[in-house]
Each structure stands twice: as structure tokens, then as C-alpha cells.
């Protein structure tokens, strides 16, 4: 979609081009302990734009810029939801959070506790099953199979966050005979562990009521 001159002035210039990669910045609010120590914000979003100022003489432009009051829902709808729609049309999509420790990556991806509206993962799960429901109801598709894995790469070690009893153990990334990276979630875990994982997914679905009565794999929950 071509951008107007006003968009360009407001820092939305990257939207002139149709790009497959978008970069968003999110500024988290100061934490109570930071307020107690009289820390102050050094990064600010220019209202109505996708630009931020740092200290305050340096200006940076992104595809999206969210200030401390942005909700999880706002971030999801602007940055992630369009990707989920393309995902169900058969395209690949990747979302990753990058930032120094304490900058809000876990909060954005996984959510921030009981009172929070949920992070990207919860929103994606909700929408994936919602869209699949629509497609099933309109007979666009007969059956839907959803596979899911939840891995963490930390300090060069891969952990399977759905395999809770053994998630301290590092998984190995393996190459097949042609040098392709194998599906390590299948090759590194024994069948017993796979079954264990199914139980964990089952418990997780039961704890997340919005997922109940949805078809996961070939099982009905
Ligand atoms: N947008 C936000 N609104 C309110 N609190 C937030 C927000 N983002 C982060 N926080 C809070 O800031 C703290 C640090 O965030 P978080 O743990 O997500 O950082 P992180 O980048 O994942 O850190 P690490 O790399 O050390 O794991 C947490 O207490 C979190 O609840």
C-alpha cells in the first residue's frame, strides 16, 4: 500500500515498500523498583508516529512503536494478527523478541501474570482456533491438524517448555545425512517423552478454558 507524504513525515516511510519483515519497538513502563530509585524514561515514542527519540536528540524509525501504555491486545492486533491470517493461508511466519535482559520480551511473548490479557502466544492460540472454527463451519476445510512445540533457546541450550518434567535437559539439534537440520523435537525425544508431552499439552488445554472443545492433532479435547 503506498504511503502518503504525511505518513512519511510521521515516520511511516518504510510502508512505502511491501516488505516481509517488520520491526516494532515496545517501551515498557518503569518498574516500581526503578520508580523508587527515581529512574526516568530516556526513550519516548513520538505520539501518532512509529518513531522514538532517545535522550532526546536521536531519532529512530520503526514499522511500529509502542509506548508504556500500549496494551497486549494493541501490540498483537497491529503486529501479529495479520501474520496469523497468512499463516492459515499456508505461509510461514516468525515472530521473535530481541532485547536486553529485563526489557519485556517474556511479558510480550508469554504475558505478565494473572491480571494480564495474555501475551502473543495466548492471542495466537485463540485466533488460530477461532479462524479454524470459521473455516470448518463454512466447509472451507474438512479437518484441521495443529502441531505445537514450545522451545526456549537460552545460553546456547535448547529446552522444551512443554516437556516440564525434563525441561532442564538440553535438547540436541541434529543434522541428517544431507546436512539438513532434523526435527529435533522428534529425533531427540524418545517416544515416552512424546507421550509425556501430550499429557502436558492436555493439562495446558484444560487450564486454558478457551482452548477446550477444540481439535488438537487427532484428539478431541
Ligand atoms: N509492557 C509492560 N507492561 C508492564 N510491565 C512490563 C511490561 N514489559 C515488561 N514488564 C515487566 O518488566 C519486567 C521485566 O520484563 P521481562 O521479564 O518480560 O523481561 P525479559 O526481556 O524477558 O528479561 P530476561 O531477558 O531477563 O528474561 C517484568 O517484571 C515484567 O512484568
UniProtKB/TrEMBL annotation:
InterPro entries: Kinesin-like_fam, Kinesin_motor_dom, Kinesin_motor_dom_sf, P-loop_NTPase. The keyword Cell membrane does not apply. One of its GO terms (biological process) is mitotic spindle organization. Its main location: cytoplasm. GO terms for cellular component: microtubule associated complex. It is found in: Cytoplasm, Cytoskeleton. Keywords: ATP-binding, Cytoplasm, Cytoskeleton, Motor protein, Nucleotide-binding. ATP binds at residues 99-106. PROSITE patterns: KINESIN_MOTOR_2. This is Kinesin motor domain-containing protein.
